[in-house]
Amino acid sequence: MLEEVQRLQTLIQKLTTQLQLVQTQNQELRTALEAKPKTVEDPAVREALELTNVRNQELEQELAEFQQRYISLQTDATALAERYGRLEQNAGELKNRFEALLVVRDQLKTERDKLASDQQQLGQKHQNLIKERDGLIVKNEHAKQKVEAIIQRLASLGQGLNPSQANQDIAALENPAAEEEGNQ
Prior knowledge:
mainly alpha
């Protein structure tokens, strides 16, 4: 875009130079025409004068065309400069939006990392709870087996139960954890 504006400015300068040259030539021809007498008897001079007049009209027509082209190029250059300015402004706005998106992206990455860490910690806690539950199930089964064994012993002994053994069995029923620790 900038290169095109520079190219147009160069072309405008060339056309301006050509325009000035044509204007100078036109002025010289007018001055020469005015200096010569109006009536010319020599046919060769008359023919040269007519050719000069024709050339003068052609040059004036070219001058008018160059002037229109010059105006058109100036208009195009102005429009391109305005467009370039708007593009620069839009580029600045896009840069600001992009930077804002980068900040949001970084925040989302931080949040994602935090959530992944939390998920890992929760997974670890879940595994620990599963292990603890399995341990408690094993202890419960063990205590259940002990209680069943005590009940069977009591049933088999019936009435002839010795009081010290009965006290131990009652204490074991009241505090199964103490007996389990004693067995370990």
